[in-house]
Specification:
The complex is a heterodimer. Chain A is mainly α. Chain A has helices at residues 2-24, 28-35, 39-44, 47-77, 94-131, 138-146, 150-177, 196-202, 206-241, 248-260, 263-274, 279-286, 300-327, 332-340, 345-373, 377-383, 400-410, 414-438, 440-443. Chain A has 2 domains: 2-194, no CATH class; 200-448, MetI-like (MetI-like fold), CATH 1.10.3720. The chains are: A mainly alpha, B mainly alpha.
Chain lengths: 449, 279
Amino acid sequence: MKNAFRQLWQKIRNLPSAVKEFFKESGRETYASMCFMGVGQMINGQYIKGLLYMLAEGGLIAYFALRGISDIIGFFTLGTVKADAWLGIEGDNSVIMLLMGIFAWFALGVLVYLYIHNIKDAKKYADMKIFKEHLPSFRDDLSALINSKFYKLALFLPLVGVLIFNVLPIVFMILIAFTNYGGTIVPPELVDWSLDSFGKLVTGSELSQSFIRILGWNLLWAFASTMFNYFVGLGLAILFNKKCVKGKAIWRAFPVLAYAIPGFITLLAFKFMFSNGGPINNMIVDNGGKIIDFFGINSKWMARGIGLFVNAWLSIPSIMLLATGILSNINNDLYEAARIDGASGWVQFKSITLPFVLFSTTPVLINQFIGNFNNFGVFFFLRSDVLSDGYFLASDTDLLINWLYRMSIEKNYYSIGAAISLIIFLITSALSLIVYVRSASYKKEDTFR
Amino acid sequence: MRKLRVRPRQVADVFLTYALLLIVSIIFLFPCLWLVLSCFSATGSIYSFNGFFPTSYSLASFISLFTDSYYTYLNWFANTLIIAVISSLLGTLLVIITAFTISSFEFSGRKALMKGALALGMFPSFMGMTAVYLLMTQFNFINSRIGLALIYACGAPMGYLVQKGFFDTIPKTIYDAARIDGASNLRIFCSVTLPLSKPILVYTLLTQFAWPWSDYILPKLLLKDRELWTVAIGLMSMPETEFARYAAGAVFIAVPIVILYFCLTKYMVNGLAAGAVKE
C-alpha cells in the first residue's frame, strides 16, 4: 500500500520533466496530432487510422457543440426553469439533466483519452519511421486486435455491459446522495445539490435516531448471525466428517437440500409457518394456548430470534459445504502426531482444526459478514408489513438495507436512501479492507502463487 | 480368539453422533417435507390444516395452479423461461469471455480491472438497483422482459472469478504449443479452450439459467404488469388461503433446481471457495 503511494508520488514529481522530455524529442507529426487528432497519423502515412481519429474528434466536437457543453452546465445547475403547466413552460427535468451530465463527463473522458493516445501514437510511429521502411498498415492493426491485443476486442462487450448496468447506476446513486432529490422534490420540481441528506442522518432528528438504532441492530445482527452460522456450519462439517459416521453422502444431502431450494421459497414458507393462522399457532391453540403473534408489532426480540434461526437454516449449509472441502485438505499426519502425543479430541480441534480452517476461510468470513450485514431477504419476507414506534419508516427488525429499500423504492426518499447506501458501502468496504489486510491469508498470499 | 472390546465411551460417542445427525437432518428436512405434503392438500387454505399437515390429500392445487385465470402460473412460468433463456445464453458468453481473457492474457490494466471489479462488488447491490429503477422509469423501459434479461446478463461478468479459477487450471503450455503451430487467439479459444471447459460452460449456463427463477427483487421492481410477472413475484402475491397452491407452484420450480444443485455440488463448492483463494 505504502509502496503504491510512493510510486504514485514519484510519477507525479517526474511528470514535468517527462513532459519536457517528450516535447524535446517530438517532431512535427506529434505537434500536428496535437492540433487536430489524426493529422500526425496522416503525415506518417497511416491514412485509415488517421481518418478514424479525425472522424472521432469531429463527432465528439459536434456532440459537445450541440449538447455536451450545455449538458455539463446542466450537471452543475440541475435545471433553472421550473415547469409550469398554466404558462405552458416545459421546464427542466433535473434527473435527466444529471444523467445527461454524467454522460457528457464520460464523453469528455473518452475525448481526453483518445487525444492523449493519438499524440503518443503519432510520436511512436514517427520515431519508428526512421528505422523501418513500412509502417504497420490498418490491416496489420486489425490483425493485431485478433492476436496480441485480443484482450481489447474480447473485453469490449462485457465492459460496456458492466459500465451501463453496474457502474453508471452506482455513479448516479453516489451523486444523488449529494442532492435533495426525493420526498416532494421530484421532477417537475427542480432538484438541487445539497448535503441535507447526510445532515439529516447525523443531527438529532427522528431520522438520525432511527439511523443510529438501525445501525446498532444491523451490526449486532451481522456479528451474531455470522458467528452463529460459521461455528454451527463448521461443527456440522466436523460431525459429518467423523470416522464413525456411515453414509456421509446421505446425511449431507439434507443440508444441501436446504441450500438448493431458492431462498424466497423457504423464506415465504417460514413466514406461513409462523403466521397467525399457521401450523405452529394452530398447535398452540389446540393445546389450549393463546395465539402468539410472532411477527407482530410488539414481538421485537422474538422476531429477531426467528430471523436469526431462519437465516441460519438458509446459510449454514453453504458454510458446511465449504468447511468440508477445507477439512479434507488438512494433513492427517498432524492428527496422528497429536494422538501419539496424547492430545485429546478437544485439544486437537483447538490447535489443529480451528487455526487451519480459520486461516483458509478468513475471506469467506468477511464475505459472510458483508452478506449478513446486507441481508435483505430475511426481514423483507418475514416482517416487511410492520412499522415500529420510534422509527422513521422502519421496524425494529429492519436492517439498513431494508430501510434503504423502503425509503427509496416504496417512499421515494431517493437522496436519503442513496446517502444510506454510501454509508453502508463505507462501513462494509472499510471493515473488509482492515480484516483483509491484517489477515494472514493476505500477507502470505504470495507464497501460494 | 480374542473378543473385540468395545469401550463404553466410544459407544456413547457414536450414539451421540447419530443422535445429533438425526436431529440436524430433521431440522433441515422438515420444512421441505411440510411444503411438499402441503401441495397435495385437498382444501388449499393453511387454516384447514391439522397442525402441520393437511387433513386430506388430492391433486386439486396442481390442477388449479395450471388452470386458474387470476393466478396465471403458466404465464409466469413462460415469462421466467424467456428471461432465463436469454440471460443465460448472453450472460454465459460474457462471463466466459471475460474470465478467459483475464485468466490467459497479461496486459496493462489487468490488475486495475480486477481491483475495480472487487470494489464495485462492495457497493450494496441495492444501490445500483434503485438507480436502475429510476433510469428505467425515466426511459420507459419498465415492464420489459428483455430489459430484465439484459440486466441479468450484463451483471454476470462481475462474478467471473469462478470461471477464471477454472481457466487458471488449464496449463499455459497447451496455448504456447498452439501458438507455435500458428493458431490465432480466436482459434485457440474455439478449438483448445472451449473443448476443455465443458464442465464450467455447463455450470455457468445452468447457474445463469437458475437465477431468474429465484430472484425476486429486480422483477418486483421492473415488472409491474401482472401479465409480465415472473414465478417468484407471482408466488409472493399468494395469500394464506392459497397456501397449498403456493406450495405446489414452489415445489414445481424447486424440484428441477434442487436436482440441478445436487448434480453440481462439486462446482458449487469450488464457486464458494473461489472468493477465498483468489483476490
